Amino acid sequence: MPLTEHLRELRNRLAISVAAVLVITIGAMFFARDIMEFLIDPVPVCGEEGRETRCATVNQQGITSPFATYFRVSLLVGMVAAAPVWLYQAWAFVAPGLHKHEKKYSRAVVGVGVPLFVGGVAFAYWLLPRAIPVLLGFSADEVTNFVSVEEILDLTVRMALAFGLSFELPLLLVLLNMGGLVSGKRMLSWWRWMVVGIAVFAAAITPTDMMSMVALQVPVTGLYFIACGIAVLNDRRRGRSDPDRDLDDDEASDLDLTPSVIEPAPPVSTSSLDDAT
């Protein structure tokens, strides 16, 4: 396919993806108020029955702020709900250039990566109602906390992306191992640095309370060790079919120097010579 055809196909698939996002965004605008209430629910709002003593007053500032938040929530829903469409369009554009084994691995990536990402997002939403009261607990006794809907939306999206992407770490490590770039034994040797790195990442991406940091660090660290275990098992499976598995990296394998009989070449017929000329 010439370059112009590739560009035309890319344009068409981008148009389909954008159209799907816009259609779902328009439909989500009819339910945006319910979605905003769902996002605000983790915040202990003052005046609600059964809420904690330390609470917050949710507000929106400015004339255009309600509509802007309304549209942002609808667009976010459109991006998430239309993910099967634009993911398929991306796959359909890339798949013709892949080999058969590459297609198999890419299907496995999608099949495992999507549940991991969704699990991370669900875990983040489970954590928010427990982390926000802790953050509000640092306020002075006579202080009234005003929290904007935009701030709640930004925090929710940031936490969802942070947890969703963090849960993709084991998939990345397993792919590096299956590609032969790193062994399971080497991955296990990184465990001290990985634990420290995960802790630093959790402290930087989560709210400033220890509970959220630990809540992100513990499952991601566990997933890291699970990925190391899968890599070690994959190395053992690969080693059983490798005759040179017991050799060091700088050691050459044995060469078979036994002479063998070479059969004489078949004679060339005159007809073949005539055809060649």
UniProtKB/TrEMBL annotation:
InterPro entries in alphabetical order: TatC (IPR002033)
Residue ranges, compositional bias (Polar residues): 268-277
Lipid bilayer topology: Multi-pass membrane protein
Transmembrane segments: 12-32, 75-96, 108-128, 159-178, 190-208, 214-233
Record keywords, A-Z: Cell membrane, Membrane, Protein transport, Translocation, Transmembrane, Transmembrane helix, Transport
Keyword Transport: yes
Annotated compartments: Cell membrane; Membrane
Signal peptide (UniProt feature, chain positions): none
Residue ranges, compositional bias (Acidic residues): 245-254
Annotated region described as Disordered, given as residue ranges: 237-277
Quaternary structure (record): The Tat system comprises two distinct complexes: a TatABC complex, containing multiple copies of TatA, TatB and TatC subunits, and a separate TatA complex, containing only TatA subunits. Substrates initially bind to the TatABC complex, which probably triggers association of the separate TatA complex to form the active translocon.
Xref: NCBIfam families: tatC
Job description of the protein: Part of the twin-arginine translocation (Tat) system that transports large folded proteins containing a characteristic twin-arginine motif in their signal peptide across membranes. Together with TatB, TatC is part of a receptor directly interacting with Tat signal peptides.
Family statement: Belongs to the TatC family.
Family annotation (HAMAP family): TatC
Protein name: Sec-independent protein translocase protein TatC
Name of the encoding gene: tatC
